[in-house]
Amino acid sequence: MNFTQRSWLQWLTLFGWIAIGTIIRFINLDAKPPWSDEFATLVFSLGNSFRSVPLDRAIALDTLLQPLQPHPAASFGDVFHNLMTESTHPPVYFLLNHLWLQLFPSDEGLVSLWAARAFSAILGVAAIPASFGLCWLAFRSRLVGQIAAAMMAVSPYGIYQAQEPRHYTLAILIIIASLACLIVATRCLENRKPIPIWLVFTWVGINTLGIAVHYFFTLTLCAEAIVLLAVVWKQLMNCRGAQMCAPTISYLSLIAVAAGTIAGGLIWLPFLQSIPDNQMTDWIYRGNPFGSILESTARFLAWMISMLWLLPVEGVSQPIALVCGAIVIVFLFWTLPILVNGWKIQLWRSPSRSGIQVVGGFVLVAIALFSIVTYALGADLSIASRYHFVYFPASIAIVSAALAICWDSDRLVRHAELNWTPRQQLRLKFLQTRGRVAVVLIWLLGFFGALTVVFNFGYQKIERPDRLVPIMQQGAQNPILIATAHYTRAQVRELMTLGWQFKHLYGSQVNSPLFLLAQHDRSSNRSVETLYKTIAELPKPLDLWVVNFTSARHDLEKGNHKTCVPDSQRRAKVNGYRAKLFHCQ
């Protein structure tokens, strides 16, 4: 086969991975109900505000869902203003999503959930060829690129991120682009060549854009900076004269990149300063990570493993979940020697040594930074899997580099690449015993993990209104009032999850419930008093559901409100909601 034919086959194979990844990401795209964070994206992308939802009085379903109604007159200025005053996120993704949503008609008067998720899914698909390009550049190997594209196509973690209308898939693309710039820069240093000016401007632009997509991109920049400093330090230590070092202009170029990136990031400094004191992010700082170090460490490992594999662990019986978890753990221990030996051999091979050092070093530093933030600063980043997008594409890359050795071990043994030492030959023959079958098995487990996510047996939504709303509606003979305490806009979004599900399941077939957001005051019992006042104003009989409203629930259970008594039926717990039914006569 000549080079042209082989190149044609390479692109055809890459297209196949893109097709597989696209199909998986669009399966059941709008089947799962949106959770509260998705509503934040939808509302702000439309240029709307949560402040339009009234507090301290009973409101109808249409009033609760009003911020989800598209308005043709909404502008970029509305998106930016509402996002900056009501959220903790930078605006780029929301502005792009604003344009995207204008291309689609509304769904029964509300924004189309499918359209919102489709934008993120398309960006997730784009990460497949981007991973191919990154690995081709980093390891100078199309084989590594093909395996990376294959792994990215079926990554359960990647599918989970791509099926939510959030900014993480865009951030992943920008991280891949920034890593590519890092690789080119380190290669210039190693070859003692000046860093081209186009790379300086491109890298600064990518980094500035990354910060404007998600503030956690700064962790990517910190990890890249540490890796780059290590490369520069190693080179300076190995210098035997000025002619052996990279040109001075290269170091000045790196300083220019750093200065330009810092300048681009300073734009968001006023908003960054407000985040630690923002009630919307208080949940990250709750608890003591050292007090539950095993639990937080287990979560870290779970998120990293799910970047490659996942089997049904949610929505199934406990025995099945335990068996699936055990299979994944056993497979992990079977795979680790393959990865370690593959990395060792890649480090011994001159074409890939630099790539393994840079990309692998980036992953290790990023994980170390996550650990420092969690255990030293008290912000438990292990709680939310979505934050680990920072090192996700690099993790796929280094795993693919190791698997490429396993796939190509027969050729390496046959041609005896390098002057193999006995130890190197032993590692290579170990990989040869695993062969291509191991790579196929690893990919297949990832494929089953992708199906696990799309069919909702893994990475389920934090809130499950699809389970709670049928319970509320089942056997309901009286009008329903759903009440919660209002601390932040998060509670508005939580009620929206229930309202959306009522509209989605029943439409106009049943009488829609009323909703109450009782404003909480820490110095008084204001929210409970508001609830009782609202109950008094509504006709009886009334079915009252208190949801995530602990003070009212305890007060009602004590019998302090004579007309409302707790329902005696025991009901299953539902993720995301602490709900209790009371009958008011």
UniProtKB/TrEMBL annotation:
Keywords: Membrane, Transmembrane, Transmembrane helix. The chain crosses the membrane at residues 7-27, 114-136, 143-162, 168-186, 198-231, 251-272, 293-313, 319-343, 355-377, 389-407, 437-459. It comes from the Bacteria. This is Uncharacterized protein. It comes from Scytonema millei VB511283.
